[in-house]
Design goal:
Blueprint lengths: L27 H8 L4 H12 L2 E2 H8 L3 H13 L3 E6 L2 E6 L3 H14 L8
Antiparallel strand pairs: 1-3, 2-3
Length: 121
């Protein structure tokens, strides 16, 4: 264990054990996920997919957007690992990923917006 001398001594414990100071790269997954939160339509799409597996056409109808616009948001959500897709014939179905990050984001959205899962109503 080494000590990092800080310019001002405020009794900061992390300076006594710099091994507990995370590297910036460790926060990249958080940054990537939070980038998805910059668009309310994307948050809505993600929230719907936390509750239902559905196709682009139905999702576009549910959120009042065009299919190309929904497809754009789906690409971003999928690239961040928040949603997954599966093909059945010509149709592609989307749903929230079964990951801890997706579940935490889902619960955070519901807490912040004060809404509940449709299945809990």
């Amino acid at each position: 264990m080494s000590y990092i001398p800080l310019p001002h001594d405020h009794g900061t414990l992390i300076a006594d054990d710099p091994g507990h100071m995370p590297k910036e790269t460790q926060f990249q997954v958080v940054s990537d996920i939070f980038k998805q939160l910059c668009d309310p339509s994307r948050i809505c799409i993600f929230w719907v997919l936390c509750h239902y597996e559905t196709c682009v056409t139905n999702l576009a109808c549910l959120v009042g957007m065009t299919s190309p616009a929904v497809s754009h948001h789906l690409r971003l959500l999928k690239s961040s690992g928040l949603i997954v897709s599966r093909r059945d014939g010509k149709e592609v179905y989307y749903q929230a990923a079964d990951t801890e990050q997706a579940q935490m984001l889902h619960h955070m959205i519901e807490k912040m917006v004060e809404i509940s899962c449709p299945m809990e109503d």
